[in-house]
């Protein structure tokens, strides 16, 4: 009997899947946005998928995996882009989509199990307390709240509320450790950062408590501008209008929307840069005057929930997805254009790279200041050229959160998170949770100078 067979024999009443095709399907996320990750990860698969339906079943699975020293890769809906849910070392994929209940909602706050979908949470909170989640990724209709916390960082709503690491944007996390006798812990206050955006490497999040914003009727707007500079200046100014309730301020330069936004063919004139907006309905009368001040023109308006595909699915990481639907040579970057010189840095990089790196900006609050994240498209040629583009941005003072790396450190702040490492030593002493994704586990002194993925080094 193989190790996986022995493991599953202990868990016979818990749903499990060993069919190779189905296991391979559940062993994948959207890593293929990156040609680098596609080369590295495309052939990886787990040996089985296990799908607990309760915390009790989850505890049994984790305890059995510890006894058998079986690696565990947690998964929500698998909508991440960086290989967060890819099993580097075989073992099992832990499908948490069965823990999907909204546990309770009160004015201003909701608590849900990790597998609850973001859209379904909003449906419950809108109906019961008139609130909605402060922000969500462009995969709102499919993503789960646990996957968003473990693998995401910001999204639609960040123009008002900042990013997940901002104090107050997560109120509580309940998680289970991976030990011989798994413990259930509640993290609150600063302790939340022990497991926030940790890819499930140091505990399995089972419940999330989140603040709510007032639920508005949202309206999608597309505005056109003659130049990228005018679009970016408007977006920066609009984000600073704190009296206008907004959820999305996204700048996309020509020719990206003209080439790749098939649902808007004929709506966006050639050569026009666009700003995608989500604005609360009572504030729409204020938009035309602000557009006119920057030379902008309204091109499209529709209530968000009435659209077949809401405008947010053309923003953030979905801008890249829209391009990939017709051009598989496209990839992307994730760039911080830091304040207060973010607009000047955008202009500098746009001038330097032109149509090789078409500009896509998401305006956000970051540490209380307005700036923009670049999710620029890249017309990919070689990995060497991609590395040159990344290096040029960083040399110019525009940090890259590398979407072509699957480890926490390389894709994040390029340093070891000592808080998360210490918590992993406590919660996962055998290093079985999502192994290979935290470089510091094997090398606590890792720095970017080491210049190699742990997985590649091990291979």
From TrEMBL:
Keyword field contains Membrane: no
Record-linked InterPro entries: FAD-bd_PCMH (IPR016166), Oxid_FAD_bind_N (IPR006094)
Keywords annotated in UniProt: FAD, Flavoprotein
GO MF term list: D-lactate dehydrogenase (cytochrome) activity; D-lactate dehydrogenase (NAD+) activity; FAD binding
Name the record gives this protein: FAD-binding oxidoreductase
Source organism of the structure: Elioraea tepida
A GO BP annotation: lactate catabolic process
Domain of life per record: Bacteria
Domain FAD-binding PCMH-type: 42-215
Record-linked PANTHER family: D-2-HYDROXYGLUTARATE DEHYDROGENASE, D-LACTATE DEHYDROGENASE
